[in-house]
Amino acid sequence: TDSTSTQLLARAAAGAPSGACLAAEWQSAGRGRRGRTWIAALGGSLTFSLLWRFERGVGALSGLSLAVGLAVARALQANGVERARVKWPNDVVVDFRKVAGILIETSGEMQGPSVAVIGVGVNWRLPDDVVDRIDQAVTDVASCAVQPPSRTELLAGLLVELSRTLEAFERDGFAPLREAWRACHAYDGRRVRVMPGRESPYDATVADVGSDGSLHVRTADGRLV
Questions:
Q1: Angle at 95 between CA 74 and CA 102, to 5 degrees
Q2: Of 64, 35, 41, 187, which Cα lies nearest the Cα of 122?
Q3: CA–CA separation, 55 and 20 (whole Å)
Q4: How far is CA 213 from the centre of its chain?
Q5: Which residues of 51-88 are buried (b: 16+ CB within 10 A; e: fewer)?
Q6: Which are the contacts of 72, defined by CB distance < 8 A and separation ≥ 6?
Q7: Which of 41, 216, 17 is nearest to 115 (CA)?
Q8: Are 121 and 134 in contact (CB under 8 A)?
Q9: Which residues lie across from 121 on neighbouring strands?
Q10: Which whole number is the average pLDDT over 2-31?
Q11: Looking at the predicted structure, is the pLDDT value of residue 37 above 70?
């Protein structure tokens, strides 16, 4: 297909139920954050999108990408990738190398209801030529898992953990997941380069994450941003 999220967005508009999932062996137009292309390998990746309907409005979904990231990290840990950690706002890394990415697209009314299409891409077993085409440090499940699961087993584990986490998020939001997320954050307390959309980049230290999912950093002059 072109993109599981594109296809699922169309199905959502036509009334597809919450929990509908599309997985693809190959995507010709897989999407990442900020207009990037998700680079995958035929048979070497796990790419899928999950539809979730919320009674709350779009404005109340802050922190959703962090909750999803935590669910993906937990599922990977349970499937042998013990060092899987989250990276704000929506990546999963192993030893600071990206193993999975998340892209969430939402629509609906501000006061509700709303719908989220959650796109997930997991590097399962990437050949060297695909790794060379990716512009950041990456790794895959096959390299990190003690005993790599099949993609079917991993997809099942991901969907179980995602449904459990999304039900909790729908009920209580991100706040109850905040401490678990922070404990899983690979960059907690580390120096990072902050790249604001319309401001100059600056160096800071990761200090915390808010109950709304915002990242808190401390600048060189001691300010908490």
A1: 50
A2: 41
A3: 17
A4: 13
A5: bbbbebebebbebbbbbbbbbbbbbbbbbbbeebbbbb
A6: 84, 92, 100, 102, 120, 122, 158, 161, 162
A7: 17
A8: no
A9: 47, 101
A10: 92
A11: no
Question: Cα(159)–Cα(179) distance, rounded to whole angstroms?
Answer: 22
- Give the helix ranges, DSSP H, for the chain: 4-13, 64-78, 128-131, 141-144, 151-172, 178-183
**Per-residue pLDDT for 157 more than 60?**
yes
Which token pair is 69? 């990231």
Q: How many alpha carbons fall within 13 Å on the CB side of residue 200?
A: 2
The token pair at 94 is: 């192993």
Strands of the 114-123 sheet, one edge to the other: 21-24, 45-54, 114-123, 97-108, 91-94, 84-87
**What are the φ/ψ torsions at residue 134 (nearest 5 degrees)?**
-95, 130
Contact by Cβ (8 Å): 152, 48: no
pLDDT band at residue 42 using 50, 70 and 90 as cut-offs: confident
Query: What does the pLDDT read at residue 28?
Result: 83
Q: In sequence order, what are the beta bridge partners of 122?
A: 46, 100
State how far the Cα of 122 lies from the Cα of 108, in Å rounded to an integer: 28
* pLDDT of 35: 58
- Residue carrying structure tokens 């990231």: 69
Q: State which H helix or E strand residue 205 sits in.
A: strand 202-209
